């Protein structure tokens, strides 16, 4: 390891997103990103395995927060444990992060390979949530149903949180979407 | 186009699955598949764009059946329209197709690239279902919630249909899983 650069990871990440957005993801190299913040390519690779990891590097933490949320949820019906775990999104996506997340999503949306990577990651999170529910004693198919429904609620809510003009927190949006799901699947809601 | 080979497509497909299962997907070439049923590589490429399409070539029809199911569903609550569309799975996966589908899934499960392809395809089907629901007047987020919940039900049911010793039809399994989803998200089910 070379010398430590204070805040290097965050500076590289911000510079990368700006370059991906303006110059294009494919056209931007690790050296470009490092140069933009006065660091060397070698420093870039001390912080990120490759230029894709700049976009997806936070997802292990995101997944762990959801899984920990299931482990820590009070004993309750499976969907209530999932709702409790979804609260982690509020910690991970505070409102001050919204501009950063919007820029990141713009880059992903412009690049099919990145969209696929994001989709695969969300699927992996759903599988980890289902495993966490089984550890809490939830049988199948309920564990997978609840985990995948939870990720459906998160995915729809996250998109809405990024929408132009949206002011609500991700937590408020998620609570509303979860209620919509309950209403949609409630037998009394049949017409 | 060269001369027409009766049943060539089906023979190529069966030979391909057998070779993918025994020799491995990566190690099998289009020429191997064609040779196994006494046809030329050129004939293979008249029927399939590449060796991956042998596995996924039926999915356009599968997607169209679901979308047509939404268009043809009686006016009802969104999840009931989705339940009606899921009936297409019974047409696409009759019980006599179960051994073929099991072999196909074994090959996909052994190969991450094919798993990704399948996942992306199911996501595309969910997006098409949501679009079909919007055409029926279902607003957002209900359309996407109902479509993705429907694909969750299908995915869990399809896996169960393939399980060793499973005797029920995919339709019977889907109806059971859909009831589990309704129970799981029903407020009265909270404990």
Automatic annotation (TrEMBL), chains A, B:
Record's keyword terms, sorted: DNA-binding, Transcription, Transcription regulation
A molecular-function term among this protein's GO annotations: DNA-binding transcription factor activity
Iron among keywords: no
Protease among keywords: no
Domain HTH tetR-type: 6-66
A Pfam family this chain is assigned to: TetR_N
InterPro entries reported for this sequence: DNA-bd_HTH_TetR-type_CS, Homeodomain-like_sf, HTH-type_TetR-like_transc_reg, HTH_TetR, MftR_C
DNA-binding region location: 29-48
Top-level taxon of the source organism: Bacteria
PANTHER family named among the record's database cross-references: HTH-TYPE TRANSCRIPTIONAL REGULATOR RUTR, MYCOFACTOCIN BIOSYNTHESIS TRANSCRIPTIONAL REGULATOR MFTR-RELATED
Name listed for the protein in its UniProt record: TetR family transcriptional regulator
Organism in which the protein naturally occurs: Nakamurella alba
Native organism taxonomy: Bacteria, Bacillati, Actinomycetota, Actinomycetes, Nakamurellales
């Amino acid at each position: 390891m070379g010398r430590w650069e204070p805040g290097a990871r965050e500076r590289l990440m911000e510079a990368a997103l700006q370059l991906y957005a303006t110059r294009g993801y494919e056209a931007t190299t690790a050296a470009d990103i490092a140069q933009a913040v006065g660091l060397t390519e070698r420093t870039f690779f001390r912080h990120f395995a490759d230029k894709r990891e700049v976009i997806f590097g936070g997802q292990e933490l995101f997944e762990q927060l959801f899984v920990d949320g299931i482990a820590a949820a009070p004993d309750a019906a499976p969907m209530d444990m999932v709702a409790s775990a979804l609260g982690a999104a509020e910690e991970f996506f505070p409102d001050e992060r919204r501009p950063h997340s919007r820029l990141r999503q713009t880059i992903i949306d412009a690049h099919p390979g990145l969209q696929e990577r994001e989709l695969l990651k969300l699927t992996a999170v759903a599988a980890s949530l289902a495993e966490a529910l089984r550890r809490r004693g939830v049988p199948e198919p309920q564990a997978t149903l609840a985990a995948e429904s939870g990720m459906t609620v998160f995915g729809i809510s996250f998109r809405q949180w990024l929408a132009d003009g949206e002011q609500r927190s991700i937590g408020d949006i998620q609570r509303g979407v979860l209620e919509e799901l309950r209403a949609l699947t409630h037998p009394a809601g049949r017409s």
